[in-house]
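Illustration 12: Integration host factor subunit beta.
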Amino acid sequence: MIRSELIQKIADENPHLYQRDVERIVNTIFEEIVEAVASGNRVELRGFGAFSVKKRDARTGRNPRTGESVHVQEKHVPFFKTGKLLRDRLNGNES
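Figure caption equivalent — predicted structure in token form:
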């Protein structure tokens, strides 16, 4: 599902809301999640999962084309851990 499909589904299920308002709500939610994770905070959506940031230390990597060793700087990467409800649904254990 892409963002526009999500917006359309929410708008269809809530006919009392204008589509432009639903779009603004969805965009605001995503922006807040991005801002929180970008500032190093953890965002948890119960039953769905949690977004956080993991730090990867600096290391020596290898250029696959030349085989040459290269220095890879430390970096921060986004991480998503699924919630129990989502995991159970994926594995066919719906409650």
